[in-house]
Amino acid sequence: MPDTRKPYLTERPRRNRANPRIRALVEENQIRVDKLIEPLFLLDGEKKIEEVSSMPGIFRLSEDNAHRHVEKSLKLGIKSFILFPIIPDFLKDTSGSYSYSEKNFYLKIISSLKKKFPEALLISDAALDPYSVDGHDGIVRNGEILNDATLEVLAKMSVAQSEAGIDIVGPSDMMDGRVAHIRHALDAHNFSHVGIMAYTAKYASAFYGPFRDALHSAPKFGDKKTYQMNPANAREALREARLDSTEGADYLMVKPALSYLDVIYRLKIATTLPIVCYNVSGEYAMVKAAGEKGWIDAQRVRDEMLLSFFRAGADAVITYFAHEFALAMQK
Ligand code: PBG
Fold it and tell me: Which pLDDT score is estimated for 326?
């Protein structure tokens, strides 16, 4: 006789969690090192290395040190890098003209990295803020951000980066129509093989604070709300995704990542392009700070966070944790 005092359960999900072998078998998502994109902050000059104070473990590097760093990352299995320049104030102007100047050190570093490490996938930043005296992503006139005038500079910058040998350009500016404009310019200059990773749903976020410290690129007046998206909106991200897709983007990006997992998921099901998310500076800084205080186990939180991006649907993740995660995988 069966014991009727025992509950009869047709399903016992715990059976699939009983031991590490079973858990591995039913595991739905993994973090792969070759799905991580490592951001690098680049300085002009030689033998320079400066830690970003609000991002422990992250450094601004001159060309020589960037080469050394990329070599180490490649050995760890990282294959992709997204590059950001720190432009000294005296090279900034209102139109960001240094961004496509022949003397631009960022373009030189792109060339030398590509030459030395042809196997590395290099992604650029195409936006005005590092080059602009106003610290905005677009050209400013009388306090307004000019959309169409900015497109011209973005196109010149993207062509210059392609001449330097970039694999993918990354417009992070949120101007309307920039993907189509850049695509046309690249194709017209015989760079149809260069991809575009569009910052599709880039929100006007407080999570960018440490990045702006790293680049000294905080806006000199106002905020970025007339071009970056309102954190309250998710449907609007679908509109941006439709535009970037039809304009010729090869990747759609959601940024920041952690507070926008729903947006990653929505874009994943609404489109057919690969989805990238940007685990931004403030997200990194929070984990590091709480870890240093002993309030959380920073390594486990890091892994849980990275996993959540893939679970939400990201195909690739830009993260300041790339190098330390890859190192941890070696152990
Ligand atoms: C600007 C840009 C920003 C980031 C990447 N590109 C900051 C901003 O929009 O002000 C932020 C990245 C991060 O916080 O890690 N074009």
Answer: 98
Token pair recorded at residue 35 = 């799905």
Looking at the domain that runs over 30-329, which CATH code has it been given?
Answer: 3.20.20.70
52, 129, 200: which to mutate for ligand 1, most atoms within 8 A of CB?
A: 129
**pLDDT mean across residues, the chain:** 97
112 C-alpha to center of ligand 1: Å?
24
Q: Is the CB of 281 under 6 A from ligand 1?
A: yes
pLDDT per residue as tens digits for the range 24-59: 999 999 999 999 999 999 999 999 999 999 999 999
What ranges make up the beta strands (E) of the chain? 36-43, 49-51, 59-62, 80-85, 121-123, 139-141, 144-146, 168-169, 195-202, 251-255, 275-279, 316-319
Domain ranges of the chain: 30-329
Please indicate whether residue 172, judged by its CB atom, sits closer than 6 Å to ligand 1: yes
Q: What is the pLDDT of residues 96-105, one digit of tens each?
A: 999 999 999 9
